[in-house]
Task: inverse folding
């Protein structure tokens, strides 16, 4: 059997935040969620999250997690060390027989294949404890691991190391696999005789008969997060990994370091991602698109051969061969059909634009349906809100909507309708009509300003 304990009780004071450290996000997912998702790839029999500081906030954040019914929260109060956390957990494992995997809630980049390797190594060595270690050129902040005859002799926390001990570059990742029966017998023997007056789980190592080191090469996996600098470093690691995958699959990034993408997005071949472009959520971009520069896309579908420049798109569907931007804002539930052009400073929301529609300049199209081959003139507004409710505008095919028209919804404009520039329309217009609503122009000759 396999039980997993995730340590997430710390205050995280160095984050300088009211939000618990483990709830800060990396690429759209909380630090703790990342650890938890990796954990469930191991198919564990029991999963425990040991909480302390703001435990109610942490527990609430996982109410809708896909494995919520399999997560057990254990309260550690007070928080006096990792050894104390496992002592508290032991009350939940009175009859447990098997392996206990201990993970840190602030080490989010660990991969399941590495943890599987640790467990396999632990079984092969028939160890009481197996620990992931690595070598760092600058090991500052990490506990040092000291080996003797291929086994772990002791682990000393950074703050408790003397000058000679600090020169050791083999560090402890804080990730352990224990034979729980063996560990259980040592928990009552832990002491807090150290500078922090805390009970360390590392002290159990030299109390066990056989503790071994499972050394990994990629130290990025065990990078911990204690402050915002380390949070940004982990984000950078994720982004480099993602852009590398996409580039090898046929995507061009003009400046990868200026771009961020989500792990859930899909990008086709021969797509060009320009500088300062950010792609979030479950976005899918098909082949031969040009995205950016200075573009933000969230949870949207972009079909092939589309170009999006200096614009924002949220929860919308963009069909093939569409041109959007610069400075367009495509708000949620917009569907832009093939061969459409959405131009400078245009905003759409909850609207369907049929094929070959043009909305080139300074217009707002909200809660609307626009027929194919219609041209929306500059400055057109669909006035969809009456102060209480939203209403729909329906514009037919082959229409010419004059510049600075205001369509007051609910309204239906038929096919092949032309509206005069500057018109304010609040009545339906039949097919093949010209609709004009203007005050008659008056010119006063020989008029001069009065002297004030």
Result:
């Amino acid at each position: 059997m396999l039980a997993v304990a995730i340590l997430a009780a710390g205050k995280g004071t160095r984050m300088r935040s009211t939000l618990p450290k483990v709830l800060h996000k990396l690429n759209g997912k909380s630090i703790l969620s990342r650890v938890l998702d990796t954990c469930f790839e191991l198919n564990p029999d029991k999963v425990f999250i040991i909480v302390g500081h703001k435990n109610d906030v942490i527990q609430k954040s996982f109410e809708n997690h896909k494995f919520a019914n399999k997560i057990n929260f254990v309260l550690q109060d007070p928080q006096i060390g990792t050894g104390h956390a496992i002592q508290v957990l032991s009350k939940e494992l009175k009859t447990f027989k098997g392996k206990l995997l201990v993970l840190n809630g602030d080490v989010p980049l660990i991969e399941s294949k590495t943890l599987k390797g640790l467990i396999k190594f632990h079984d092969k060595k028939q160890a009481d404890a197996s620990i992931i270690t690595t070598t760092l050129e600058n090991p500052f902040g990490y506990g040092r691991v000291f080996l003797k005859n291929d086994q772990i002799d002791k682990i000393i926390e950074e703050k408790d190391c003397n000058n000679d001990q600090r020169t050791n570059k083999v560090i402890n990742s804080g990730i352990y696999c224990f034979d729980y029966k063996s560990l259980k017998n040592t928990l009552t023997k832990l002491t807090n005789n150290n500078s922090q007056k805390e009970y360390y789980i590392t002290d159990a190592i030299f109390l066990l008969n056989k503790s071994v080191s499972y050394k990994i090469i990629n130290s990025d996996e065990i990078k911990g997060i204690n402050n915002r600098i380390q949070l940004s470093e982990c984000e950078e690691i994720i982004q480099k990994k993602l852009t590398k995958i996409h580039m090898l699959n046929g995507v061009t990034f003009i400046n990868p370091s200026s771009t961020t993408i989500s792990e859930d997005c899909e990008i086709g071949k021969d797509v060009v991602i320009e500088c300062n472009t950010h792609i979030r959520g479950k976005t899918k971009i098909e082949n031969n698109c040009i995205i950016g520069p200075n573009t933000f896309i969230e949870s949207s579908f972009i079909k092939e051969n589309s170009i999006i420049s200096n614009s924002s798109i949220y929860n919308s569907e963009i069909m093939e061969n569409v041109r959007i931007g610069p400075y367009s804002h495509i708000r949620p539930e917009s569907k832009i059909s093939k061969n459409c052009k959405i131009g400078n400073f245009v905003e759409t929301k909850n609207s369907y634009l049929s094929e070959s529609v043009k909305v080139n300049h300074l217009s707002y199209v909200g809660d609307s349906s626009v027929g194919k081959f219609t041209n929306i003139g500059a400055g057109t507004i669909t006035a969809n809100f009456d102060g209480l409710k939203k209403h729909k505008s329906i514009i037919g095919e082959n229409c010419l909507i004059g510049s600075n028209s205001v369509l007051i919804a609910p309204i239906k404009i038929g096919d092949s309708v032309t509206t005069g520039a500057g018109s304010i329309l609040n009545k339906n217009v039949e097919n093949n009509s010209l609709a004009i609503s203007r005050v008659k122009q008056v010119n006063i000759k020989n008029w001069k300003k009065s002297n004030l």
Summary: The longest strand covers residues 170-179. The mean pLDDT is 95. DSSP finds seven helices and 41 strands in the chain. The two ends are 93 Å apart (CA to CA).
